[in-house]
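Memo to structure team: turn this sequence into structure tokens by end of day. - J.P.
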Amino acid sequence: MIPALRIASLLLALVALGARAQDLQPIKDAGPYVPSPDSVVSDMLKLAEVGPADFVIDLGSGDGRIVLTAAKVFGARGFGVEIKDELVRKSNEAAKNEGIAGRVKFFKRDLFKTDISQATVLTMYLLPDTVNLLKDKFLAELKPGTRVISHDYPLTGWIPEKYVQMDLEDKVQISGVTTTLIYLYVIPAKVAGRWSAKMPPAVARQASLELRQQLTKVSGSARLDGRDVPLEDVKLRGDRLSFKLAGRKGEFTGQVKGKSIEGSFSGGGPKSAWSATLGS
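Reply from structure team:
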């Protein structure tokens, strides 16, 4: 006869195992493990201009080759997320054997639940529907200026900063074709809204900006001393905003810092400062 205390302990253990198994079930199956060819890994990291100051996160890291290469070749730090135990174990062993375990780690996690806010570069080789399910997560968690690299599949509706297409024989074993695509995106700052601006006196004594935004596409107008002037050549790359005033010489450039913008105006002579504050 099994003592009641032992039965209770067994039941608790079974419950814990069940909870663990449930925790490891991903929100969505991201597809089978398919490695990026080594040549593509290098091209992906070069396109993102990865360097020693970067923290690289790879979603669906497989055997770890992207994060390992980022650390060994480009001097970066980072971590990979993978759902398969064996691949996580092998990746951490490789990091240890190559002397970079202090800079990179690999975890068994659901990529949809992983905190990615630390990334300055995020890489992925995932199925198209999975890639697009992550778009809201990227905008919510990644800092403006973070570079996102996607192998083969684009983020629908997003305009890539750069786009590379090449033919590689290595891809035939993976996808049945030689075509290889790499997309680079840069997470934009949020600039939509009405901004109270301080312009150089030569431009206006009272000024405001009205900005409209669809991801990286920004348009709008300025109100200068009671007169509306359309903005031209508006560009937003990460937290860097630039624009011109229609019919006027010079360019405004600035860095977006949350609810403020600080920058300079170049109108042909010495540069002068300008700034703006959201919602005031």
